[in-house]
Structure formats: C-alpha cells, structure tokens
Amino acid sequence: MSSGGPSRVRFHWILSPGKDLLFYIGSALAGWLYLGVILFAILTLDEPLSEPLTTLAVGGVTIPLTLELLVVLSWALILDAPHVWATLARTLFDPDEWRVRRREILFSFIWFGVGPLAVLAPYALGALGAGWGRPIPAGSLALGAILFFVFFRLWAYYHVVRQHWGFFRLYKRKAGDFEPTSDRLDTWFFNLSFYLPLVLFMTSAWYAETPGFPDLGLRRPLIAGTSLGEVVYPLAWAAYAAVLALYIGHQWRLWRERQSLNGSKLLMLSLLVPLHLAAFSHPVVTAFVVPLVTVGHNIQYHCIVYSYARNKYPQRTEPQYRWIRGLFRNFATYALVGLIFTFALYRGPLVEAFRDATGGRLDEMLFNSLAMMAGVRNPAELGLGEQVMAAVIVGFAMQHYYLDSKIWRVSKDEQVREYLKV
Fold first, then answer.
1. Tens digits of per-residue pLDDT, 91-108?
2. Could you tell me the end-to-end alpha-carbon distance of the chain, in angstroms, rounded to an integer?
C-alpha cells in the first residue's frame, strides 16, 4: 500500500499509514522517551544509577522512583516479557509450526540450560580445583555469569538490529527500491550505522565506567604507551561520519536528479540510527542499552505477531486450532494472556519454589535479576541465586531469539508472506 504526497518522496506502507507510523516506525519514540528520562536523571542527580528521581506514596508505602524502576521494570513487565510470550503462542500453539519445525521447537528449550550451566561452571571447576589443591580465586567465580550476560546482551542487540533490518527490507520491497547502487549503499549504511556505535562504546575511555561489562583491556597501553582502543576509537568515528555523509549525499543526489525517495525507509532510519548512537554514548545511558533499543522492537513485534495471527487463525476452523484461535480472539485477550504470562514468569509458583529453595528474598532477587539482565547491575556484585534466577529467565528471551530466526523468513516462507500480506 502506498501513500501519495509529493512524488519526490513516496511512502509505502506495510499495513497502513496509521499503523505503520504508530507501531513499526514511531515505536522508536518509546526509546527516545526512555532516553529523555535517563538524561534528565544524569543532569539532575549526583548518582543517577541509585538516587530516585522522586518518590511515590501508595497506601502508606513510599516507593523510590529510580531509573531501574522507571525504565527496567516498565520495559520488562509491560512489553518485553509479553513479547516473548507472543513467540511462544505463535509457535507452541500452532499445529503448522509443529509439523514444519518440530526439531527447531524442541531444540529451543536447550537455551534454558545454557545460562545456569555458564553461571555454575566456575563453581564446579573451583570445587574440582580445590580437591586437587588448586582452588579458583573467589573473585573469579562470577566470571561465568559475567561472560554469559555479556553474550546475552550482544545477542539481544543483534536480534533487535535484525528485526529492524527485516522491516527495512520490507519497506524497500514495497517501494521496489532495489536499484543496485542504492541497494548496496543501503546495506552498508544500515549495518555500519547500527554496529559502529557498539565498537565506539567498547573502545571508548569510559567503557570501564559502565556497570555489567567485563574489562576488555582495550585501553591498556601496548606500544609506546598507546592502547588499541585509542587507535580504533577515532577510526570508528571517522568511518561512522564517512558512511553517514556518503548516505546523506546519495539521497541528496537522488533528490537533485528528481528521483523519488523512499520516505518510509528514510523516516525509519532517521528515528533509529541516532537513537542507537545515543544509546552507546555515556556510561549511565549504556547501562540501560537493552531496554533503550529493545522497547521499540517490542512494540513492533506485538503488532507483527497480532497482525499475522488475525490474518491466519480466524479462518482456521479445525479443532486443532481452537487454542491458538482463542489466544488471538481479540487484542484484549492477547494482551491479558501476555500479562498473565509475565506474572507467572516473575511471581508464579515456579519462582516462589525457587525462592523457597534458595531462601532468598523474592522481590529483591527478582529486581536484581532484572537489573542484571538489562545491564544495570554487575553480576559479580550479586549472589549466586540471583545469577542463576536471571539466567533461567534469560532462557525465555534466548528461546525467543532462536525461534524468531526460524519463523519470520519472509523471502523463504510463502505462508509468512501470505499472512503478513507482503
């Protein structure tokens, strides 16, 4: 579907102008809202990671509204956990998925064991080493948790960028925007503009000030007192500036040659590219990089899953589709079941049983686990029970990442194209 407007800038929509601008493109504004709250805290608080912006009195209880509460909990409970549920509903309750992808669905449950094994591995090695007279230093026991959560955050970032790439390609497909030179430049600009900020962060002088990330040693002097980070950082900035100037210059050339510009694609980039650069620009901001760059993705994902489901399941009247037909009966049912899943994930019987087994304080453990998942807390500063709990919860996210890579292959899956109407 395309919209009019000046012929020099054409907008082609996946669903409709309103839905695309609200869910697929405008969803990035949620990340900008979070960024605004974080920047306000940086400018007004001495310790923005721990001091509350304000307090809220509810029923005689005073709640300090810290960034962790305002950003991490609102993201995790309202949008992120329900979007993980959306993948499970779209796969586990769909008979077609079991018929076509049974092996992948069964394999996806392995991800629940990867995190706990990584967290517990140093402790197991430490026990073996102690028996041989070679104990592992206590300060190294959290190394498994640190490496695992860094891996998780990197995968989370890659997953978000890949979904943006999918929408980017859909807007190009809708516009027939595949002229060879422009297409190559689109590919290079998209990938460099999203991944170079990560390189800038890892080689920056303030990387070590960001909680939850291990020391990479990139700022340690190597030759003549110069570190690898000091060399790579300005080169990465130069590459970022060059590809940005090249891309803008190409769009300007197309405009001067009176060729039509793909307005949907460019509007999407104009909201996302600077957001991802800002997300890696300051230690306090980058501490919240997972919710910052993921919240818009969550909104996009809810829309794409619900649109797919509403185009497919109401017409499937066979008995084996009754459960998934009910789950996607209307948006209220879809949202309610997602919130129930969130409650079960963070406060359900299994979580209560884990609390009883470990003797931990449930609310504190959950809060610290969520903060560690988001990148705000350093795993080395938390208890083993909190590390394991967070690793189990992360299993749902990693299962979601894995299954997503299988079920949304628009170019290869005719059924996906049919029900997404692309």
1. 999 999 999 999 999 999
2. 10
